[in-house]
Amino acid sequence: MSQESTLPAPYIVVLGSLNMDLVLKVPHAPAAGETLLGRSIHHIPGGKGGNQAVACARQGARVSLIGCIGADADGEALRTALQDDGIDTDALRTDAGQPTGTALVMVEDSGQNRIVVIAGANASLQIDEATLGPQLASADFLVTQFETPMAEVVRGMALAQKAGCKVLLNPSPMQPFDAALWPLIDTLVVNEVEAGALAGRAVATASEAAEAGAALRRRGVARVIVTLGGAGAVAIDADGARHHPAPQVQVVDTTAAGDTFLGVVGVALASKSSLDDAVALGIRAAALCVTRPGAQPSIPTRDEVLRSPVAPTWTDL
After folding, report:
1. Which are the catalytic amino acids?
2. Count of C-beta atoms within a 10 Å radius of residue 198
3. Which residues pair with 315 in a beta bridge?
């Protein structure tokens, strides 16, 4: 029996958004004033919180989700989808005064996507400290993003610190946040745009990502990962920076690729993998995700990731 099989499953608490994605397949994004004939439309469970929870669950973690939905058919469909993945939804609130969050996702033939999010009930999210505190006390990570009210994200991160739970933050969509939050973050996952905005410098190459990541670490973050799309990711910690290239794949839809990467990295770190091994596994999962359409339907299981091509060897920067 392998060591991995004898270890208890990691426990991840996700604080985040839930959306029903309206996915439009189009030849290309319409120009201003242009009317375009689309190819198809689908309703698919999504939202960064939901996606990241599903990604963690499909890697074998126990997952609890803190979120808010509307009292409507979309909300019930999202709840059911989460439960089908074995995710604990006991802390999922329902706001009868708001519709469930919605995301309009326009996917071009190239696989590139453009997304508009209507927060809906996500804006009503409120943390129940009496419930969340004990959950965090036994959790390996609190995973959170910025698609829910910042005040609740801050409360969640502060509770995690008090409970001794590490925080994995994906500050997306990007917005300013209080400098006091930096030391609360164990692992920060940002794309090149977010890294550039936070570090105050352009990030277009692996070397620039390493410089930005080092600057962000100086603010108190233990580990920084800058994702670079098809160019892979850069991992930055106390040992320096390493560039992890990505395998070349045929891109169908990039929706949920970042959330897949984050979920896989979080579970790997919670399972005591090194940062480099976690990032390499996350890249394999994201590369598999982009070959499939949709958000949550495209997120691979652990077995699928382990059967996928191994990512190229990383290099020191």
Report:
1. 259
2. 22
3. 243
Classify residue 217: in a domain, yes or no.
yes
Tell me, yes or no, whether 269 lies in a domain: yes
Of 206, 203, 207, nearest to 195 by C-alpha is: 203
Distance CA 240, CA 232 (A): 17
Q: Is 296 exposed, middle or buried (0-12, 13-18, 19+ CB in 10 A)?
A: buried
Element (H, E) at 24: strand 19-26
Q: ∠ at Cα 134 (132, 140), nearest 5°?
A: 90
Domain range for 281 is 3-18+47-100+123-316
Q: Whole-angstrom Cα distance, residue 157 to residue 109?
A: 39
CATH code for the domain in which residue 174 is found: 3.40.1190.20
Domain count, the chain: 1
| Within-domain flag for 271 | yes
Is residue 192 a contact partner of residue 209, using CB atoms and an 8 Å limit?
yes
Mean pLDDT by 10 residues, the chain (317 residues): 64 97 91 93 93 97 97 97 97 96 90 88 94 94 96 96 96 88 96 95 95 96 96 97 95 89 97 96 96 89 93 87
Answer yes or no: is 105 within a domain: no
DSSP secondary structure letter of residue 10: P
- According to the model, what pLDDT value does residue 40 have? 93
Asked if 178 and 214 count as a contact pair (C-beta separation under 8 A), the reply is no
